[in-house]
Design brief:
There is one protein chain. By secondary structure, this protein is an all-alpha fold. The chain has a domain at 25-109. It contains 4 helices and no strands.
């Protein structure tokens, strides 16, 4: 038997992967599950931000600037993580769950006091800065 005479059909990568792809409904279910997990993470970050805000006010009232600076760094990190998680949620909704749902949920999960997510009016920080510390006497 002459092996050089045997012709094998060339398969495209898309046809090879087609058998391994999950049905759209399974992708949608996984995306919904992941979105709920990410929303829970957003809620936890919101709770952390509220705790950090209270701690920041307490340290500023006492005049403990080193601790206040540390807490402000923690707040910035939590806000960055919150925005990253929000971006993941928006990407999931856009890719797997439809863009009309993404737009309706965007305002529902915006950072409190920050307006639309990442766009729109300039942000107003919900916690006092060191330049606006009000000391009670």
């Amino acid at each position: 038997m002459d092996r050089s005479a045997t012709v094998r059909p060339v398969t495209s990568p898309s046809s090879v992967d087609a058998g391994n792809q999950m049905p759209d409904s399974a992708n949608r279910l996984q995306a919904e599950h992941l979105r709920e997990m990410l929303r829970a993470q957003c809620e936890q970050l919101d709770a952390d931000l509220a705790t950090y805000g209270a701690a920041l006010e307490r340290y500023q009232r006492r005049g403990e600037q080193t601790q206040a600076r540390r807490i402000r760094g923690m707040i910035r990190a939590a806000e960055r993580e919150r925005r990253s998680v929000q971006d993941l949620i928006m990407g999931l909704e856009r890719r797997f769950l439809g863009s009309e749902q993404s737009r309706s949920e965007q305002s529902r999960h915006a950072l409190p006091g920050h307006g639309p997510v990442r766009y729109g009016a300039p942000r107003v920080h919900p916690y006092p800065t060191p330049h606006r510390v009000i000391r009670s006497k």
